[in-house]
Structures are given as C-alpha cells and as structure tokens.
Sequence to fold (387 residues):
Amino acid sequence: MSENSEFGQLLEEAGGRTSYYVGEIIEGTVDDVKENELVLNIGIKSDGVVKKEEFTKDASADLTALVKKGDTLTVKVLKKDDGEGRYLLSYLRVQQEKNTKFLLDSFENHTVLTGTVTDAVKGGVLVDVEGSSIFVPASLASDAFERDLSKLKGQTVELQLIECEPKKRRVIGDIKTNLVAKKAQAKAEALSSLTVGDVVGGVVKTLTDFGAFIDLGGIDGLLHISEMSWGRVTRPKDFLKVGQQVEVFVKGIDGDKISLSRKFPDTNPWVNADEKYAPGTIVTGKVARMTDFGAFVELEEGVDALLHVSQIAREHIEKPSDVLTIGQTVTAEVLDLRVDAKKISISVKKILPPAEETAEAAPAAETAEVPAEEAAEAPAEEAPAAE
Fold:
C-alpha cells in the first residue's frame, strides 16, 4: 500500500477527510504569504493556494501587507489540482456570496444600511457597504439638490436598497428617504422641547436680506433683521457670519415655524430711558445717518435721537450734511422724550452761548459815549485816500 493510501485510510478510519469537492466551502490556515499568493494548510495531505486575484479586486495590492501567517480564512474550492498538486481556492468568492446574501436579505427586510461614499460617477454616487458597491442616483443621494456630488465623497451615509439584482450587478440604493425621515423626527423632537421664552444656542445656517436662519439642532428658526440687535442692522451679513455660534431666545412658535430674537429684555436700552434721557439732560452721541430734515444721533446701541435741522445751529442751515458728517461726535440737550414711541429729540443750538454775548461784545467798546469836551479836542479822522 502506498504512503498516500495509508494516510487516506487512517483519516477515513478516524472519520477525517482526504479530499474536498469543487464548490465546497472550507477553512484553512495560512502557512506562507507571498506577494501574489497565499499557501494554506487545509487539513489534508495537499496544500491549498489562493491567488491574489482570488483574494482581492485590487490589482495593486500586496498580500504580505494584508495577511499574516497563522490567519484562518474561509475559502471556496475552485479546482482540486492547480497543476502543482495543490487545491486552487478563492477567498474573494466566499465574500462575494456572503455579500450577495447580505444584500438580498437587506432588500427583503428593508434594512437601513451604513456605508461610505467612495466615488461620484455619472448620474450618482457609489457607496461601499461591507465590501459591496451600491449605486445611488443623484436624485436620491441627498435631501437637497447637489450640483457637485464629489463633495459627498468620504461621507458616511445611511441608505436602503430599492433594487437588488447582484448577479446582474444591479444594486441601487436610496439615501434621501432615510435622511428625510431622520430629519423630520429630529425636527419634531426639537419642536416639542421648545417653548416661547426659551434661551437656546444655535448656529447661523444661512443669511438673507431679511434675516438669518439659525440651526437649533434638528430645526431651523428665523432671526429677523429687526430682532438681531437693539441697534440698527442694515445688512445681516455685516452683523453675522455663516457658522457663527449665537445665543437667541424663542420669540414665537407658529406650527413648525419658529421666530427668534437677540433683543433680550434685560438689555433693552429703553428700560430706564426716562432717567438717562429726561428733558434738559446733556447727552453725547455720534451721527448715524442724515436726512434733509435732520440727523439721527446714536446715543447708545438701540437709542437714536433726532437732531432737527433747525436745532443744529443758530444760523440757517439748508441741510444737515452742510455742517455734519457721519460718525461725528456731537453734544446736545434733550428737548423731548417719548419712551412709548421710542423717540428722543435733541438740540445743539440750545446749549450754544447766547447770540447777544458774542454779537454785542465788540460793538460795545466801539460806540462807548465820549464826553463833549473830549470829543471837541479829539483830532478829526483823516478821510480815506482815494483809490
């Protein structure tokens, strides 16, 4: 009896295997690792070999960097003899079959899968899910229109399969539906936790001419331009930046619409205005803007006073810009205060020195009365020389 026959007989008697059939799934232990192939101990006299192309789809891969001696691999028998008396095995096909079953089960059970966007291709993106490449059409790649799909590359996404035919290499996913559902849930949860008057933190999401949309974590709120500051805000983009962290309070809730404000009541400059700006009080401020009828002077953030053109100087002035400039500091007296209407009128003219003090000072010396006898003795003024 030959050595091989004796070995086979001993295995059979011990209930062991002496060979494997083509297509069988077996396990083997890596005995040797080469750049382009792996040699496996598969529990019988013959060794098994896994070529690089049967281990990975990456033609540039180096097996010595992926596998180490002693690793256990589940493989599929392709041939019983590769020409050198070894079993030709495939690790890749086992993984592909596992992935096929995984995809079919996920499709049937409507499982939400997690994967990574690996590339942007014509008409959509490719998402890697546990080694399987799933195509997601551009219309289903996001909950918003994305002109440049390449910016999704590298992102971790959740998706569901809407078509699954692995044998035809047709596996299509949908990112949008799950994303919309999650955002709707987050929005509902965020909305239910808010009440009017709540002070919350948020991030400036977008800016418009009329205000800013603030991300409150699952739901957006509108911070109108009129609610950004007690002071005057002309352009939101000059006052806030996208991505900026802000603290706001909930001013109103109407369905799923949330209005926000940064005009906190305890910082309202008009609260004690009747004390700070009582008529007769001397105030100082800067010219903020001008019209033909007067200039508005900012006394503090949120408090502007009207300096009427008639109250700028004693002499007649056609328009404020003839004597004032934006940013100029002026000192004036409060003429009138109406807290309910948030209106203050001031006057510079009222604190100017009386006109007669300056106008009469010089003539008084020139026209002083002189005694008659002194006048008679005074020499006559010479007539001016003819020109």
